[in-house]
Design a protein that fits this description.
Length: about 240
């Protein structure tokens, strides 16, 4: 992941081709059961994390994000309220490990709004093994949250997610236009910004339709960044909170 400037005055727009490809490191029953497709997850992980980073999917479903993360040498933790989906995610992770995936992952059943409490149960994964290739981070910090955009981005949920991110870490929300009852893009951006994150990049990911290879569908990926503690914007927000108090 390339180094980023300390402030983002112009929103970056990117277009990613994410072709559908058959991936051997998934069980047959687990393919296609997650709103984030494997190619999109893989590209997002490469762009927004480094080897050894901790990646979290608070709504992991069958574990697509987790499998792609461990394929690229990351650590990953998935949360889901559905016991059946969580069991399939565990099976997909085990299958990927048998195929040679170098990373490590865990799946927990629970409410994504209780992410800090749930992460405390996965303590062995929170601190990376010291190697020359792994960046140094505070123990237990999350460098990337990659997940489907919540249908209702309420403040408690976003505060929990923001709270576990390391300074400089990213929240990537994958917004499927076809999913009903999903919050609109404008409302989603406003909610995340109120939670204290910076709107960093907007990605349009194109892929062909399974029924018609000539028909392109697109998915919006919204990237938000948690400011570094010593950045001017972070200091200004802290000053405003002190005045308001």
């Amino acid at each position: 992941m390339s180094s980023e400037p300390t402030t983002n005055t112009t929103l970056a727009l990117a277009v990613w081709p994410t072709p559908n490809r058959r991936r051997a490191h998934y069980l047959a029953a687990g393919r296609g059961g997650h709103p984030i497709q494997p190619e999109l997850a893989a590209r997002a992980i490469l762009a927004y994390s480094d080897a050894g980073d901790l990646i979290v999917d608070p709504c992991c479903g069958i574990g697509t994000v987790l499998v792609e993360a461990i394929q690229q040498g990351r650590r990953a933790i998935g949360i889901d309220t559905d016991r059946t989906a969580a069991a399939l995610a565990i099976a997909n992770i085990s299958h990927a490990r048998q195929q040679g995936a170098p990373g490590r992952a865990a799946v927990l059943e629970g409410d994504p709004a209780r992410l800090p409490q749930l992460l405390a149960k996965a303590q062995p994964l929170l601190t990376p093994k010291p190697t020359a290739q792994v960046r140094r981070h505070p123990a237990g910090s999350v460098q990337l949250i990659l997940t489907a955009a919540p249908r209702t981005p309420h403040s408690q949920l976003l505060a929990a997610w923001t709270g576990v991110l390391a300074p400089g870490g990213f929240l990537l929300l994958v917004h499927e236009q076809q999913r009903r009852a999903t919050a609109g893009l404008g409302d989603l951006v406003a909610s995340v910004e109120r939670a204290g994150l910076e709107y960093w990049q907007h990605v349009i990911a194109f892929r062909s339709s399974a029924g018609d290879p000539q028909a392109l569908r697109h998915t919006d990926v919204l990237a938000f960044r948690k400011p570094q503690l010593d950045e001017p914007a972070a200091r200004a927000r802290a000053e405003r909170r002190e005045v308001a108090a």
